[in-house]
Amino acid sequence: MNTFKTPFLIIVAISFLVLATNAQNAQQDYLNTHNTARAQVGVANVVWDTVVAAYATNYANARKVDCSLTPSTGGSYGENLANGNNALFTGVAAVNLWVNEKPYYNYTANACIGAQQCKHYTQVVWSNSVKIGCARVLCNNGGYFVGCNYDASAALKSRKITASVRQTRGLGASAACGQLRNKFQKSPSLATAEGEVIEARLRSEDFDNSCIGFAFTYICDVCVGL
């Protein structure tokens, strides 16, 4: 009886390991980890998109040969990539790796601190990124590659990731939207920040109808000081 005890325990341990790692690579695991980070800064949840996920899967499969963190080309999506040496490097572990860059993001300056990397984090919590798709593959070298794509992509130079003029300035939603619209109408040049054009809808006639839902998270640095 005792002869089989140790092998049995090993098999059980391996089974639990497989279950644990599989439980951290599902679609909902990617969503939960992203949305937990986004909730911490007051940003709405992302949702899973099958088209974006297909793009992520296709590119992950292309990286099986080397597990390289070479960015994909030809797509219009934002992208975060990561790799690890063994099966413990799960999808959740990859997202947490990106989220752990949070201390290196300076919200006031809207930039990474010094030479630190923070753009993976800003992509995770970017308010304009509302759809995601992720994939994880076993590479030929035994490592694991994880990639997530985002629609739309982040643009660190032109927009802040969170916080509304309503919250910052103590304005009601209607008042804040009205001030923004008037400011854009009086000075269209304010719609450009560091050479990048803000979403055209902020300057359009549709602004009144749509600003409640998204305007506050699309405001560029130049326009924040209302």
Quick structural gist:
This is SCP domain-containing protein. This protein is α+β, with helices and mostly antiparallel strands and 226 residues long. The protein is built from 8 helices and 8 strands.
Report Rg.
21 Å
Number of helices: 8
Low-confidence stretches: 1-20, 157-170, 191-226
For CATH, the homologous superfamily of the largest domain is named as CAP
Distance between the termini: 77 Å
> Main beta sheet: strand number and arrangement?
4 strands, mixed
- Helices and strands, in N-to-C order? HHEHEHEEHEEHHEEH
CATH class division of the largest domain? Alpha Beta
Examine the secondary-structure arrangement and name the CATH architecture of the largest domain. 3-Layer(aba) Sandwich
CATH topology of the largest domain: Pathogenesis-related Protein p14a
State mean pLDDT (0 to 100 scale): 74
Q: Give the helix proportion (percent range).
A: 25-40%
Which strand order does the major sheet show? 1-5-6-2
Strand content: 5-15%
- Strand tally is 8
Which structural class should the secondary elements be placed in?
A: alpha+beta
Keywords: Pathogenesis-related protein, Plant defense, Signal
Function: Probably involved in the defense reaction of plants against pathogens.
Protein name: SCP domain-containing protein
Domain SCP: 25-158
Characteristic terms for this protein:
single chain; 226 residues; alpha+beta; Pathogenesis-related Protein p14a; 2 domains; 4-stranded mixed sheet; two-stranded antiparallel sheet; 8 helices; 38% helix; globular; disordered N terminus; disordered C terminus
